[in-house]
């Protein structure tokens, strides 16, 4: 293993941490409807739990309503029940074979709770990135100890790892700021 391997490895892991953080942010409701909101809702499909997108067409009816149209008639009640029982606090209404999921207006108090949740998720993502930095620095120290690289190489590698960390922490801060603005927009 070389310094370049350590740097490449830590950069890939930090990128995947950012992607995971983005996925977590997408699940946080902003008051506007978007089809990604139902991505993690699981439906009982003949004995196995599958994402809602595998049993129904999910689309936007308008800016505040999501339309869910199951491909099989007998799935309408199951899909509606799965949406109602999800942790999103939504109240779907069935009209024939179309399930309409209106997005309730967020109260000021609920918006503040959501921004706290976003900031908490952001802190968790930063902790994950910093843990990756620590692991990479430990790998570099081990390489010096095993006499595979020089101390100068370790220091340069550590500086590069710190640059990655700073870049990804700044990206997390920017994503948190954008999501906060999105939530607080009425």
Automatic annotation (TrEMBL):
Protein location: Cytoplasm
Cellular component GO terms, alphabetical: cytosol
Superkingdom of origin organism: Bacteria
Keyword Cytoplasm applies: yes
Family: Belongs to the RRF family.
Name of this chain's protein: Ribosome-recycling factor
Protein's job: Responsible for the release of ribosomes from messenger RNA at the termination of protein biosynthesis. May increase the efficiency of translation by recycling ribosomes from one round of translation to another.
InterPro entries: Ribosome_recyc_fac, Ribosome_recyc_fac_dom, RRF_sf
Any one GO molecular-function label of the UniProt entry: ribosomal large subunit binding
Keywords: Cytoplasm, Protein biosynthesis
Region Disordered, annotated ranges: 143-162
Ribosome recycling factor domain segment(s): 21-184
Record flagged with keyword Protein transport: no
Biological processes per GO annotation: cytoplasmic translational termination
